[in-house]
Batch of 4 targets.
Target 1
Amino acid sequence: MIEDKLNEKVLQQVSIANALGVEFNVEKRQPDIILVGNPKTKKVAVMGTTDIDGQELLVAYLLNVKKWTWADDEGFSKDEIVEHFSKEIFTWISIDTVAEELMS
């Protein structure tokens, strides 16, 4: 199941950070969306699944927390934020480099 693969990938990235003495915060938002954050760098990644042409894939994005917070404070719903500001808020990264991205 794709959610199991996602959980394995999250655990892998958290383990990489732990091996370097860095602790991440992990929050499962839905079965297919997990937030991973580094409190020291204040960076957050969204790790999840998506369906492209009938194929389920694992994906990861860096989240621009400041832009998300601004949009949320302005009263935009989560759906509106994704629809109107996704290019400003989400930056695609390889799911295999989440730990590296969050620690840099």
Note: Residues 47 and 60 are 4 Å apart (CA to CA).
Target 2
Amino acid sequence: MKIISLKEMSRYEKIFLLKELGFNEMDSFVIDKKGNFVLDRYTEEKISIDNMAIFPTDDGILALDNNELSIASYLEFYGDEEETNKVEAMKFTQAYKIVRQVMGLKE
């Protein structure tokens, strides 16, 4: 799985990336297409734009809070070499490249 750091992205880039992946932002938190706050699958807390992590899964993209429990739980459940994650990882990588191009940044 390719890892791309979101820490170095500006808030504007993160929001743009979320939109490319089918999410949005409200009050500094990630929301889904229906306008519901996205909760971290493992902690059940709202996911802050400033502390989010995005991972591919076999059924789409998973947004998590960037904390040790959530990351470890994701890796335990999905592993880091899941064949089924490749399509979603490619989709994320393409969206990330679009953000960088729009922002005029180097890859």
Note: The mean pLDDT is 79.
Target 3
Amino acid sequence: MGLTIISADDQKYLFSASYSTFLKFRRKIAKLMGLNPDLIYPQIKTSHSYDLVKAQSNWKEGMAVFFYHSDCEGLWNVDDCKKILKLLRKVNSYNFKLMNMIDGLEYCVEKKQSAIFC
């Protein structure tokens, strides 16, 4: 069992992995962006709530949507996909999952489709 993120209409895969791998992926992206990875999952890291608020005040558009979205259901609408895409394009890494995510988000934006978590 795990997470799959697909485009809404034609079900192109954006990301597929276990839930723990998606958490590790988001933590890695946070680290590559110079953020404290412990601040991206407040449900678990409640002792960092003050640091979280302080960090979020400096966050760029799209960061909260990417880091805090439920990993088991819901969707990123086209505007969310645009914001996340802009954010992820700035990450300097050739991580395979990151490149797939960028390709999939570009596809969703181009086709005006949401990205669905299932």
Note: The mean pLDDT is 81.
Target 4
Amino acid sequence: MGGLSERANDTIVRFTALNEQTRKGADQVATHLSETTARYESSAIRMHRLSEESSARMKEMAAEITTHIEQFESLRQASDKAGAEVQDRAATAMQNLQHVLERLLSAREATNTIG
């Protein structure tokens, strides 16, 4: 019986040592998981902040682009209007020139018939 008692005590000592090692391992795993979770949360917060900043920048850029497009459209309309006015004035000037040339030819013919 003494041998049985000794073996039982040895088994209990081994189980106690194994239990101690398992607890240490579990504590290390829990610590590692806690640190990993903290890093993940930090990264998630940073990503959220970057996303918000990016969104704000995109909105600013979109507003700036819209402003430039509106200015460009105003300039295009003014250019079209100015081009139409120049074309109308050129057409009027051509008509006036043609009228002056016709009168000049008429005056020339009249002086040729007289003289």
Note: The CA atoms of residues 89 and 95 lie 10 Å apart.
